[in-house]
Specification:
The protein is an alpha/beta fold. Helix content is about 45%, strand content about 15%. It has eleven helices and nine strands. An eight-stranded mixed β-barrel has the order 1-2-4-5-6-7-8-9, surrounded by six helices. Helix 5 runs parallel beside helix 6. It is globular. The N and C termini lie far apart (about 45 Å). The structure holds ligand C2E and magnesium ion (3 copies). The site of ligand C2E has 23 residues, from strand 2, helix 3 and strand 6.
């Protein structure tokens, strides 16, 4: 049955049972090699305001292309890295790459564009996390307002609650934007919304997928946007694949969309090209011609 539900749940099943099969071992070996051997890279997915038509930011997404295993999904190797204790190293690598790339874009004179980075719960256990981030940003000549960290609800239910809240306060005070990813899919209570210095709620793709047909999902999305707005938070919709979804979302007050409808995650070269096309105007250059918000 686990196998029917797909590859990821199959791995999860094995992990839970404490079994080690060949596939897991190959992945583990591969991941360690990928880290050392430079087989990881980043893809970047634009976030676009469909009303103002401005390109407002992008998300860095980790990619692993393995010569033997092929393209391995982060949905598979991130949980593995967490389990193996490799996520801190992976996370550091991602933060280094993002800061360096931002620094390069700035040096080349591109309009500065905020980049968001996904953060695993384990990374927030390190009391030096904030200091390391500020050090990196400084070394690369990047202002902290250009970095956003995407936390999931699972990040917010650690045992070291107090230390973690301090850490998030430090990041926020230093100018780093904090957002909550996959909103509505975790198990934590909503109380973190008033305890933590969050600025952005990302509506999970699972609530967007069946729009506009699914009325219940429409009501949920409407309620999330209403709550976020009342709390002074920005909203971003994930997984926007169609014009109809974008139309509905902007009508409900969610203007920033991320998804295949506007742009898939793209290579550094492709993003650099888009940044040139976008230029000083900051407008997204590839709206469908007849898009009228
Ligand atoms: P996420 O942070 O929620 O990222 C959004 C995921 O949705 C990405 O999958 C993206 O490629 C995909 N996506 C974007 N637009 C669409 C769309 O219109 N339709 C569909 N079906 N999918 C869309 P990806 O890159 O496979 O990453 C999966 C997850 O892996 C991420 O979910 C994030 O939780 C995790 N991840 C990726 N990179 C990192 C990283 O550097 N660190 C950590 N800790 N986690 C990461
Ligand atoms: Mg994310
Ligand atoms: Mg997400
Ligand atoms: Mg998601």
């Amino acid at each position: 049955r686990a196998k029917d539900a797909g590859r990821n749940s199959y791995c999860f099943y094995n992990a839970v049972m404490g079994e080690r099969n060949y596939e897991d071992l190959a992945l583990e070996h591969g991941l360690r090699k990928a880290l050392e051997g430079g087989l990881l890279h980043l893809a970047w997915q634009p976030k676009i305001d469909v009303v103002s038509r401005r390109w407002v930011g992008m998300e860095a997404l980790l990619r692993w292309h393995d010569p033997d295993l092929g393209e391995v999904s982060p949905l598979q190797f991130i949980p593995l890295a967490e389990k193996l204790g490799l996520i801190e190293t992976l996370g550091d690598w991602v933060l280094d790459q993002v800061c360096q790339q931002l620094g390069q874009w700035i040096k080349r004179g591109y309009r500065p564009m905020p980049v968001s980075v996904n953060v695993s719960a384990r990374q927030l256990v390190d009391a030096d996390f904030a200091a390391c981030i500020f050090r990196r940003l400084k070394a690369c000549g990047v202002g902290s307002e250009l970095l956003e960290l995407e936390l999931t609800e699972s990040c917010l239910i650690l045992e070291q609650e107090d230390g973690e809240y301090q850490l998030l306060d430090q990041l926020h005070a230093g100018g780093v934007t904090l957002s909550i990813d996959d909103f509505g899919t975790g198990y934590s209570s909503l109380s973190y919304l008033r305890k933590l210095p969050l600025s952005v709620i990302k509506i999970d793709a699972s609530f967007v997928r069946e729009l506009p047909g699914n009325r219940e999902d429409g009501q949920l999305v409407k309620a999330i946007i209403g709550m976020a707005t009342a709390l002074g938070l920005e909203v971003v919709a994930e997984g926007v694949e169609t014009r109809a979804q974008a139309t509905l979302l902007q009508g409900l007050g969610c203007h920033v969309c991320q998804g295949y409808w506007l742009a898939r995650p793209a290579s550094t070269e492709q993003i650099s090209q888009w940044l040139r096309e976008s230029g000083e105007s900051g407008l997204w250059p590839h709206f469908p011609e007849d898009w009228e918000p």
